[in-house]
Amino acid sequence: MANIKTLKQFFLISILASLAVGSAPAQSSDAVQAGFANPPHMARPWVYWVWTADTTPAALTRDLVEMKAKGIAGCILYDVQTGRGVNWWERTVVRNGNDYRTAPTDDFHGAHYAPIPGEPLQSWSPRWRQLVCFASGEAGRLGIDFVVANGLANTSGPISERYGEQKLDWSETSFKGSQTFNGT
Question: What is the pTM assigned to this prediction?
C-alpha cells in the first residue's frame, strides 16, 4: 500500500501534467482539416501483401510504388502457402496441448478453388528470400514499413460470417463555416 507522501507526489505530478496539457494551443480548423487530408505516418493504414505466385522485382516495385501513392504506411508480407498443395478448406487447424496441427474437415463443403495463374513461389526458398530482401530494400527506399508474417494463420478456428470478409467503406461530406453536423 502506498504511503501518503507517495500519493501526494503522484497527485502533484498529475496536476502539473494536466496543466501542461491544458495549456497547449488549440488547433485551428485548417490544421485539423490538413491533418485529415494528410495524416501523419503513424496514423496511416497498413495492408497485408500476399504473393500468390512467383513474381519479379519490377512487379514488387510497382506494388510498393502504388502503396505509397495511396498513402499506405506499411505492409505485412503474408504467407498463403501457395505452391504447397494446401487447400485450406479441406483442413482445419486444431490445438493439441501447446501445439497446433491440421485435421481433415468438411466445414467448407462445396468451396470453389480456382488455380492461381503462374508458377508457385515456395515460401522460405532461396528465390523467395531474395525477393523478400529486394522488397524490404524498396520499401525502405519508399518510406514504407515492411514486416514478414511468420506464424500460424487460422489458429483460432473458423471465422463466422459476421466477422469474415468485411470491407471498409467511407464517404466524404464537405461543409463550410461554423455549423452543427448531424450524420453518420
Answer: 0.55
